[in-house]
User: What shape does this take?
Amino acid sequence: KPAKLGPYFEMRTYTLASGAELPKLIALWEKGIPDRVKLSPLCAAWVSELGALNKFVHIWPYKSIEERNATRDKAKAAGVWPPSLLAKKHNMPAYSMTAQENKILMPSAFSPIQ
Assistant: This one.
């Protein structure tokens, strides 16, 4: 559905070490996402099924880069994010990544999500 969420979107792509790592990451996200989205909404969270495998992509909308930085600082200070922190906090298995890519994206004028 069309929405006004941004106009700044952070897209993060994690390449996990192997297929066995994805269930660990998903378990940590399921544990932490209810508290994390209280600080800012999650626009999307996806896993790859075809093409480049072992990928997890998530997109977060922000009104500004400053809001993004402040939200991330609040989440870390509150102990609700990132998922790697939750692994230690809840004695859950951590996941291993081989690469991480972050981008700040802006919607095109015709995008239904702004």
